[in-house]
What we know:
This protein is mainly alpha-helical. It has ten helices and four strands. The chain has one domain. The strands form two sheets. The chain has a two-stranded antiparallel ribbon. Helix 4 packs parallel to helix 10 and helix 9 runs antiparallel to helix 10.
Amino acid sequence: MPPPMSLPTASLTLRPELAKQALLVTAALYSGYALLGLVGLPGDLRYLALVAAFYLLPGYLLRRDPDRARAYQVGPEGVIPRWSWRGAKWAALLIVLVFPPFVLGFLWFYAKVCHGELGVLSPVLWLEGLSPAAGGLEKYLARFCRSYGGEFWPTALRLPEAWLLYAGFGIALELAKELFTIALPEEVFHRGYLMSALEERWPARRKIFGAPLGIAALLACLVFAVGHLVGELAVARLATFFPALVFSWLWRRSGSLWAPALFHAASNLLMSVLLASTFAR
Protein backbone atom coordinates (compact mmCIF):
# COMPACT_ATOMS: atom_id res chain seq x y z
CA MET A 1 0.00 0.00 0.00
CA PRO A 2 1.41 3.45 -0.90
CA PRO A 3 2.38 5.77 1.94
CA PRO A 4 -0.07 8.38 3.20
CA MET A 5 -0.12 11.69 1.38
CA SER A 6 1.25 14.76 3.13
CA LEU A 7 -1.42 17.46 2.84
CA PRO A 8 -2.30 20.40 5.04
CA THR A 9 -5.59 19.03 6.36
CA ALA A 10 -5.62 15.29 5.88
CA SER A 11 -3.57 12.13 5.57
CA LEU A 12 -4.76 10.20 2.54
CA THR A 13 -3.66 7.12 0.67
CA LEU A 14 -2.01 8.20 -2.56
CA ARG A 15 -3.93 7.85 -5.84
CA PRO A 16 -1.31 8.32 -8.60
CA GLU A 17 -3.92 8.07 -11.37
CA LEU A 18 -5.30 11.46 -10.32
CA ALA A 19 -2.17 13.17 -11.69
CA LYS A 20 -2.89 12.02 -15.24
CA GLN A 21 -6.54 13.00 -14.90
CA ALA A 22 -5.59 16.47 -13.67
CA LEU A 23 -3.20 17.05 -16.57
CA LEU A 24 -5.79 15.93 -19.12
CA VAL A 25 -8.49 18.09 -17.53
CA THR A 26 -6.18 21.11 -17.54
CA ALA A 27 -5.22 20.56 -21.20
CA ALA A 28 -8.90 20.18 -22.16
CA LEU A 29 -9.82 23.30 -20.21
CA TYR A 30 -7.27 25.52 -21.92
CA SER A 31 -7.96 23.95 -25.32
CA GLY A 32 -11.65 24.70 -24.85
CA TYR A 33 -10.82 28.29 -23.92
CA ALA A 34 -8.79 28.67 -27.12
CA LEU A 35 -11.53 27.03 -29.20
CA LEU A 36 -14.14 29.44 -27.85
CA GLY A 37 -11.93 32.25 -29.08
CA LEU A 38 -11.68 30.73 -32.54
CA VAL A 39 -15.47 30.53 -32.84
CA GLY A 40 -15.75 34.20 -31.94
CA LEU A 41 -17.04 34.18 -28.37
CA PRO A 42 -16.27 37.59 -26.78
CA GLY A 43 -13.23 37.66 -24.53
CA ASP A 44 -15.13 38.63 -21.38
CA LEU A 45 -17.52 35.70 -21.75
CA ARG A 46 -14.66 33.31 -22.45
CA TYR A 47 -12.83 34.44 -19.34
CA LEU A 48 -16.00 34.20 -17.25
CA ALA A 49 -16.39 30.60 -18.40
CA LEU A 50 -12.75 29.91 -17.51
CA VAL A 51 -13.14 31.39 -14.03
CA ALA A 52 -16.27 29.32 -13.45
CA ALA A 53 -14.39 26.19 -14.52
CA PHE A 54 -11.48 27.02 -12.19
CA TYR A 55 -13.88 27.27 -9.26
CA LEU A 56 -16.28 24.44 -10.07
CA LEU A 57 -14.37 21.69 -11.88
CA PRO A 58 -12.10 20.53 -9.01
CA GLY A 59 -14.99 20.00 -6.60
CA TYR A 60 -17.04 18.27 -9.28
CA LEU A 61 -14.23 15.89 -10.17
CA LEU A 62 -13.74 15.02 -6.49
CA ARG A 63 -17.45 14.90 -5.60
CA ARG A 64 -17.21 11.20 -4.63
CA ASP A 65 -14.08 11.78 -2.54
CA PRO A 66 -15.04 14.52 -0.03
CA ASP A 67 -12.03 13.93 2.22
CA ARG A 68 -9.67 14.52 -0.69
CA ALA A 69 -11.66 17.55 -1.86
CA ARG A 70 -11.38 18.96 1.65
CA ALA A 71 -7.62 18.27 1.72
CA TYR A 72 -7.20 20.00 -1.66
CA GLN A 73 -9.41 22.82 -0.29
CA VAL A 74 -11.68 22.68 -3.36
CA GLY A 75 -14.78 21.46 -1.50
CA PRO A 76 -17.01 19.78 -0.59
CA GLU A 77 -18.59 22.59 1.46
CA GLY A 78 -18.15 25.19 -1.29
CA VAL A 79 -15.91 26.51 -4.05
CA ILE A 80 -14.32 29.22 -1.87
CA PRO A 81 -11.71 27.86 0.57
CA ARG A 82 -12.40 28.42 4.25
CA TRP A 83 -10.87 31.68 5.42
CA SER A 84 -7.54 31.30 7.21
CA TRP A 85 -5.80 33.96 9.31
CA ARG A 86 -2.68 31.83 9.15
CA GLY A 87 -2.76 32.06 5.37
CA ALA A 88 -3.26 35.83 5.55
CA LYS A 89 -0.30 36.20 7.92
CA TRP A 90 2.00 34.19 5.64
CA ALA A 91 0.91 36.28 2.66
CA ALA A 92 1.59 39.50 4.59
CA LEU A 93 5.01 38.28 5.73
CA LEU A 94 6.09 37.44 2.19
CA ILE A 95 4.76 40.75 0.89
CA VAL A 96 7.01 42.57 3.37
CA LEU A 97 10.02 40.44 2.43
CA VAL A 98 9.58 40.15 -1.34
CA PHE A 99 7.98 43.35 -2.59
CA PRO A 100 10.83 45.82 -1.81
CA PRO A 101 13.54 43.88 -3.72
CA PHE A 102 11.03 43.12 -6.48
CA VAL A 103 10.31 46.84 -6.98
CA LEU A 104 14.04 47.57 -7.24
CA GLY A 105 14.47 44.67 -9.67
CA PHE A 106 11.56 45.89 -11.78
CA LEU A 107 12.97 49.42 -12.02
CA TRP A 108 16.47 48.13 -12.79
CA PHE A 109 15.21 45.74 -15.47
CA TYR A 110 13.23 48.34 -17.41
CA ALA A 111 15.97 50.94 -17.01
CA LYS A 112 18.18 48.44 -18.85
CA VAL A 113 15.90 47.12 -21.58
CA CYS A 114 14.21 50.44 -22.35
CA HIS A 115 17.65 51.94 -23.00
CA GLY A 116 18.43 49.14 -25.43
CA GLU A 117 20.58 47.01 -23.11
CA LEU A 118 19.10 43.59 -23.85
CA GLY A 119 22.02 41.54 -22.53
CA VAL A 120 19.97 40.65 -19.46
CA LEU A 121 17.54 38.88 -21.80
CA SER A 122 20.15 36.97 -23.82
CA PRO A 123 19.03 33.46 -22.75
CA VAL A 124 15.37 34.30 -23.43
CA LEU A 125 16.12 35.88 -26.81
CA TRP A 126 18.24 32.88 -27.77
CA LEU A 127 15.46 30.48 -26.85
CA GLU A 128 12.89 32.60 -28.67
CA GLY A 129 15.13 32.61 -31.74
CA LEU A 130 14.66 28.86 -32.01
CA SER A 131 10.88 29.25 -32.20
CA PRO A 132 8.41 30.71 -34.72
CA ALA A 133 8.08 33.70 -32.39
CA ALA A 134 11.66 34.89 -33.12
CA GLY A 135 11.97 38.66 -32.75
CA GLY A 136 8.60 39.02 -31.08
CA LEU A 137 9.96 39.94 -27.65
CA GLU A 138 12.18 42.70 -29.01
CA LYS A 139 9.27 44.20 -30.97
CA TYR A 140 7.04 43.95 -27.90
CA LEU A 141 9.60 45.74 -25.71
CA ALA A 142 10.14 48.42 -28.36
CA ARG A 143 6.41 49.20 -28.36
CA PHE A 144 6.19 48.96 -24.59
CA CYS A 145 9.15 51.26 -23.94
CA ARG A 146 7.80 54.11 -26.06
CA SER A 147 6.00 55.40 -22.97
CA TYR A 148 8.96 54.84 -20.64
CA GLY A 149 9.74 57.92 -18.57
CA GLY A 150 13.50 57.55 -18.99
CA GLU A 151 14.50 57.76 -15.32
CA PHE A 152 15.28 54.96 -12.90
CA TRP A 153 12.90 56.36 -10.28
CA PRO A 154 9.41 57.30 -11.50
CA THR A 155 8.75 61.03 -11.16
CA ALA A 156 5.51 60.31 -9.28
CA LEU A 157 3.45 57.45 -7.91
CA ARG A 158 0.47 57.04 -10.22
CA LEU A 159 -2.56 54.81 -9.86
CA PRO A 160 -4.12 53.06 -12.87
CA GLU A 161 -6.98 55.05 -14.37
CA ALA A 162 -9.52 52.31 -13.61
CA TRP A 163 -8.80 52.71 -9.90
CA LEU A 164 -9.95 56.33 -9.97
CA LEU A 165 -13.38 55.67 -11.49
CA TYR A 166 -16.70 55.80 -9.65
CA ALA A 167 -15.61 58.53 -7.22
CA GLY A 168 -12.75 56.44 -5.92
CA PHE A 169 -14.68 53.19 -5.57
CA GLY A 170 -12.78 51.90 -8.58
CA ILE A 171 -10.03 50.81 -6.19
CA ALA A 172 -12.44 48.56 -4.27
CA LEU A 173 -13.74 47.09 -7.53
CA GLU A 174 -10.21 46.36 -8.73
CA LEU A 175 -9.34 44.72 -5.40
CA ALA A 176 -12.40 42.48 -5.62
CA LYS A 177 -11.74 41.69 -9.27
CA GLU A 178 -8.09 40.79 -8.71
CA LEU A 179 -8.87 38.57 -5.75
CA PHE A 180 -12.09 36.81 -6.74
CA THR A 181 -11.90 36.66 -10.54
CA ILE A 182 -8.15 36.23 -11.05
CA ALA A 183 -6.02 35.22 -8.07
CA LEU A 184 -8.36 33.00 -6.04
CA PRO A 185 -9.82 30.93 -8.93
CA GLU A 186 -6.34 30.42 -10.41
CA GLU A 187 -4.98 29.28 -7.05
CA VAL A 188 -7.95 27.01 -6.36
CA PHE A 189 -7.39 25.25 -9.67
CA HIS A 190 -3.61 25.30 -10.17
CA ARG A 191 -2.42 24.96 -6.60
CA GLY A 192 -5.40 23.42 -4.80
CA TYR A 193 -6.34 20.92 -7.49
CA LEU A 194 -3.58 20.50 -10.10
CA MET A 195 -0.54 20.65 -7.83
CA SER A 196 -2.16 18.47 -5.17
CA ALA A 197 -3.17 15.87 -7.77
CA LEU A 198 0.34 15.82 -9.22
CA GLU A 199 1.71 15.25 -5.73
CA GLU A 200 -0.29 12.02 -5.66
CA ARG A 201 2.08 10.77 -8.38
CA TRP A 202 5.21 12.67 -7.33
CA PRO A 203 5.10 13.30 -3.56
CA ALA A 204 7.55 15.89 -2.26
CA ARG A 205 10.56 14.17 -0.71
CA ARG A 206 12.21 17.19 0.87
CA LYS A 207 11.39 20.58 2.31
CA ILE A 208 12.47 23.96 0.97
CA PHE A 209 12.42 26.64 3.68
CA GLY A 210 9.95 24.54 5.61
CA ALA A 211 7.59 23.68 2.74
CA PRO A 212 7.43 20.24 1.08
CA LEU A 213 8.00 20.87 -2.63
CA GLY A 214 9.17 18.69 -5.50
CA ILE A 215 8.59 17.70 -9.11
CA ALA A 216 4.83 18.12 -8.80
CA ALA A 217 5.15 21.79 -7.85
CA LEU A 218 7.56 22.46 -10.72
CA LEU A 219 5.29 20.75 -13.23
CA ALA A 220 2.21 22.60 -11.94
CA CYS A 221 4.10 25.91 -12.27
CA LEU A 222 5.11 25.04 -15.82
CA VAL A 223 1.52 24.22 -16.77
CA PHE A 224 0.40 27.47 -15.14
CA ALA A 225 2.90 29.45 -17.22
CA VAL A 226 2.10 27.69 -20.50
CA GLY A 227 -1.60 28.22 -19.83
CA HIS A 228 -0.99 31.97 -19.93
CA LEU A 229 0.02 31.63 -23.59
CA VAL A 230 -3.57 30.78 -24.46
CA GLY A 231 -4.64 34.31 -23.61
CA GLU A 232 -1.70 35.93 -25.40
CA LEU A 233 0.97 34.16 -27.46
CA ALA A 234 4.00 36.03 -26.11
CA VAL A 235 7.17 34.54 -24.65
CA ALA A 236 7.06 37.10 -21.83
CA ARG A 237 3.96 35.37 -20.48
CA LEU A 238 6.10 32.36 -19.54
CA ALA A 239 7.68 34.50 -16.82
CA THR A 240 4.62 33.65 -14.70
CA PHE A 241 6.48 30.41 -13.93
CA PHE A 242 8.58 32.22 -11.32
CA PRO A 243 5.85 33.83 -9.19
CA ALA A 244 4.03 30.49 -9.42
CA LEU A 245 6.95 28.95 -7.51
CA VAL A 246 6.29 31.44 -4.72
CA PHE A 247 2.56 30.68 -4.79
CA SER A 248 3.34 26.96 -4.51
CA TRP A 249 5.66 27.52 -1.56
CA LEU A 250 3.02 29.61 0.21
CA TRP A 251 0.36 26.95 -0.34
CA ARG A 252 2.41 24.24 1.26
CA ARG A 253 4.07 26.40 3.94
CA SER A 254 0.82 27.94 5.21
CA GLY A 255 -1.57 25.05 4.55
CA SER A 256 -4.14 27.49 3.14
CA LEU A 257 -4.98 28.54 -0.41
CA TRP A 258 -5.69 32.02 0.93
CA ALA A 259 -1.94 32.60 1.34
CA PRO A 260 -1.04 32.27 -2.37
CA ALA A 261 -4.34 33.89 -3.42
CA LEU A 262 -3.74 37.03 -1.33
CA PHE A 263 -0.09 37.25 -2.35
CA HIS A 264 -1.05 36.66 -6.00
CA ALA A 265 -3.66 39.44 -5.93
CA ALA A 266 -1.29 41.84 -4.15
CA SER A 267 1.43 41.10 -6.73
CA ASN A 268 -0.91 41.90 -9.61
CA LEU A 269 -1.99 45.15 -7.94
CA LEU A 270 1.62 46.14 -7.28
CA MET A 271 2.49 45.46 -10.92
CA SER A 272 -0.41 47.67 -12.04
CA VAL A 273 0.90 50.57 -9.94
CA LEU A 274 4.48 50.07 -11.14
CA LEU A 275 3.42 50.01 -14.79
CA ALA A 276 1.21 53.09 -14.40
CA SER A 277 4.04 54.98 -12.66
CA THR A 278 6.95 53.85 -14.83
CA PHE A 279 5.25 54.06 -18.22
CA ALA A 280 3.25 57.23 -17.70
CA ARG A 281 4.63 59.32 -20.55
